[in-house]
Amino acid sequence: MRSFTTSAVVGALALAGSASAASATSAAPTAAPTSNTTCAQSFYILVARGSGEAVVPPGSLKYPDYTGLAGAAALKVQSQIPGVVIGGVVYPALDGVTTTGNLNLTAYATSEANGTTAIADEITAYTKKCPGVKIALMGYSQGAQVVQDALCGGIGGDAKFSLGGTTTGFNAYAPISQDLVEQNVLAVALIADPSHIANTTYDHGNSTRNGVFSRTNTTACNPYVAKGLYGSWCQADDLFCDSGTSLNIHDYEPLTYEDQVAQFLVDRWNNYTTSASPSGTGSASGTASAPSGTSTTNAAGRVAGALGQPLLVGASVVLAAWLLN
């Protein structure tokens, strides 16, 4: 078995041969509007869904549109803190494998670039419409990479791959203004991030390895880490965030860490309202039960019961089969 490294990407895309998708770095894509522009009475949770997740939740799952499985943690926060509004990032969330089974990470990179631009545009638009409302950013899988690139600057030269003899890479856009982030962003929750960096101060999972597209330049986001805004959850052996072997672990990670992510956002809100309150006693009403902090039980059984089959199968299974050969 082999892990999904940058060299593996190069080899895989070399097999793509004559594919001719445009480079993700060619032109800045146009961002679509956010899925929810209602001004929150407490804070706003903006969620970027993972690769291949449906815009509208399938089956009996009742997550907000465009949020995917990560919407479960957002809903848990909303049920405990009055006035929370949830929105989803409107972007393609394309898988790295086409419907015909061909590997196309250029399509993934273009999708990720669209999401990065969308995050930046949506934060700017929301803060103008709803001044003073704090924002929590949450992303799963590709969505987590989208959030990271928006805050820290595009991953750019940190991860490149070759297609048809041409070397290209992820977007290299500048990060969102530090002032805009520090004035408006309350928390950042990353779940199964392919650009995950292991053994950081904000790691909450049990992963010990970097992701398949691990970021090497964290300069722009270090101030946010220092302020405690960041939390990152990655489970050991996750195919993408831990460069492991398990697609199953990756597919259900938003539900595996649902309680912990929700608690993180509740704690961030409580800390903010306590520090902002003139009396120093705070005004938050979040009462989430504290997670164990060590749970890594996979949530596949729970969501499979609702769906009848895993949510992220299909193209991802093809990719996993290639990786594990």
TrEMBL record:
Keywords: Disulfide bond, Hydrolase, Signal. InterPro entries: AB_hydrolase_fold (IPR029058), Cutinase/axe (IPR000675). Residues 1-21 form the signal peptide. SMART domains: Cutinase. It comes from the Eukaryota. Residues 275-295 are annotated as: Disordered. This is Carbohydrate esterase family 5 protein. It comes from Sporothrix bragantina. The lineage of its organism: Eukaryota, Fungi, Dikarya, Ascomycota, Pezizomycotina.
